[in-house]
Design a protein that fits this description.
Undecaprenyl pyrophosphate synthetase, 9 helices, six-stranded parallel β-sheet, globular, binds farnesyl diphosphate, alpha/beta
Length: about 240
């Protein structure tokens, strides 16, 4: 698969990725799981660069779920350290490529070091408009929705919102991801075909793409394949084929 096979006028605006398979990749090679996460960061860099090249506007990466806090302490600590070092290391690249970094999730739960590094880079890149890169960290879609319900209920209680006025956009505007458009293409690596509590509201009309490759082996060519596959599909949004013509 090469870039010429891709229709440049139909690039998914928002790609979200469940980066799965780091642990298995390392285990297959006889290494500790953390080694897989380290290699996974190289893939992150390659895919971010590919998205910039292709003109993808939004890339959201599921880097750490709320459920991941239950992993062995050593793995959680290593992942947190890896996050700090990767974000720090990539800052110059984000300046060069005009990449804006944001994060969604229960960010307050993250260790101070991660929060501080994240804040520094979020602020430094806040004016950039090229690729909007979002990391989902300590993220749970159900928790996000519960928070939305609580926030809206509070506003109803305080007479800020009328129940009758609640619609899709009310929900959208209260999500962590309120500044992101709906996901167009959701990719999950490693052969698992699950959503795992990731952006349940935001993927309502996303095209789902599952590939067998483990995240550390995923590369630009695999991304091009996913986009090529996306471009072959007809997105009907509930309408008929004829209505779309
Ligand atoms: C899933 O693989 C991957 C994760 C839980 C962590 C993803 C993190 C990175 C790729 C590195 C840091 C990210 C950034 C954005 C710098 P898994 O451990 O569940 O794999 P398994 O299913 O084979 O066990």
């Amino acid at each position: 698969m090469t870039e010429d096979q891709i229709n440049k006028s139909n690039i998914p605006k928002h790609i979200a990725i469940i980066m799965d398979g780091n642990g298995r990749w390392a285990k297959n090679k006889g290494y500790k799981r953390v080694f897989g996460h380290q290699h996974g960061t190289n893939t992150v860099n390659e895919i971010v660069e590919a998205c910039v090249d292709l003109g993808v506007e939004y890339l959201t990466l599921f880097a750490f779920s709320t459920e991941n806090w239950q992993r062995p302490k050593y793995e959680v600590n290593s992942l947190m350290k890896l996050l700090v070092s990767s974000i720090k290391k990539e800052l110059q690249n984000m300046h060069d490529q005009k990449i804006k970094l944001t994060a969604i999730g229960d960010i307050d739960k993250l260790p101070e070091k991660v929060k501080n590094q994240l804040d520094e880079v979020r602020e430094a890149t806040s004016s950039y408009e090229n690729l909007k890169l979002t990391l989902a960290l300590s993220y749970s879609s159900r928790e996000e929705i519960v928070n939305v319900v609580k926030a809206i209920s509070q506003k109803v209680k305080n007479n800020v919102i009328d129940v009758e006025d609640i619609d899709h956009s009310t929900i959208d505007s209260h999500l962590y991801s309120h500044y992101l458009p709906d996901v167009d293409l959701l990719i999950r690596t490693s052969g698992e075909q699950r959503i795992s509590n990731f952006m349940l509201w935001q993927i309502a009309y996303a095209e789902l793409y599952f590939c067998e490759v483990l995240w550390p082996d995923f590369n630009k060519e695999h991304l091009l394949e996913a986009i090529y596959n996306f471009q072959k599909r007809e997105r009907r949004f509930g309408k008929t084929s004829e209505q779309l013509k």
